[in-house]
Description:
This protein is of the alpha/beta class. It has helices at 21-35, 54-67, 80-89, 122-138, 159-168, 193-200, 227-236, 263-276, 293-301, 313-323, 347-361, 365-369, 394-407, 432-449; strands at 5-6, 9-13, 43-48, 71-77, 94-98, 107-114, 152-154, 180-184, 204-208, 240-244, 251-255, 260-261, 284-288, 305-309, 327-329, 335-337, 377-383, 411-416, 422-428.
Amino acid sequence: MEKLFGTDGIRGIANQFPLTPEFVTHIGSALGKVLGQTPRPALALLGRDPRISGAMIESALAAGLMAQGFDTLHVGVLPTPGIAFLTRALNARCGIAISASHNPFDYNGIKIFGADGFKIPDAAENKIETLAHASRERDDISRAVIGAIGQRHDDGKHIGAYLDFLLNAVARQPILRGKRVVIDCNNGATFDLAPRVLRELGAEVLALNHQPDGLNINHGYNALEPKVLRETVLRERADFGAQFDGDGDRAVFVDERGNFVDGDFVLAILARDLKTRGKLNNHAVVSTVMANIGLEKSLRDAGIKMERTIVGDRWVTEQMRVLDAVIGGEQSGHIILFDGGHTTGDGLYTAIRVADVIARSGKSLSQLAACMTRYPQVLVNARVPRKPPLDQFPAIQNEIARARAALGDARILVRYSGTENLARVMIEGQDAAAIERAANAIAAVIQETIQ
């Protein structure tokens, strides 16, 4: 049985298995069975990013759910965190975001949130997989009786509740009055909401890539070093710039001097602010094995401990709940903040919280980011046709061992991407040229070995 769910839902090329209309209908039916229709009425909330395949996948999911007796509420294009928020706000049985996040337009995906606004657990995903595959093999979907078929409702007005939530994070105060802000929406789900929210908070906003056509989502997207954003911030003499990915759950920044401010810097800034205000539960921050050692040292200097998890915002979220932590995140810009009632990473909410620290402190973003020194870090991707365990290949392990011996105290992490057929080689150390050579050498051996 093919594994459907990765680290962040189901992901793949749209209109190819498993994201064909036929099989997505099986997935929708399986989801309805796992969640159950009682007590009625059972409501599933669906939203998407602007990519061209979104409506097709949304309709197929809805058909499977309605065949199980679920009513479906369609809110249109909305950032993924907005769907998580509305799932709880509207007491829906589940919320579904149709999005492939930072991937190109030909990809798509399905992320499922439970009634509590958190991503559904592994056990539920496994049941959905089993039922969907079984239904496909039978070429049949069990159906509710005709009188119990679910109904479709299209209503975008509920987006207003999410907008209110964002603005209320700073009591609707004009914290950005007098500030010039550049935002890059990457023709994704934030294309309308991000400029509107930041202008309501008083900013003069220059928006880039905010005219989605279904095909241009994430075109030219650079996860950690948005160079076009940097050029625009410097040319326009802006106070800072923010970049959102396709589904709006990530944000990275550029300060007024043109420096890149990734998720590690944001965690350092926000954690310090929370601690100063007595709101940092257990003096703890959760991040991943990819976090720069500079973040760990910065937090330690401030009397804050950092817990590392494997890569993936769902694992960060789970560990935050275990530790009763209020902040966690990833270098890629997934920042999770529980202190305001949110349940998932939200790029726009993160931007508002960063802006709030700027306003209250009277400091620029570059001054705030100076609390952390980033150690040289290189990440090299090796495309692979499959993902066998890396430890079964002596050639790969020998190359990693050679790198460790040559680099001394450098940190080396080799892993597969959870959403793409890539092996990622990350090395962190003091000699930038040496770690880049070593990372490229390991990646080359991986590509040569896994054929």
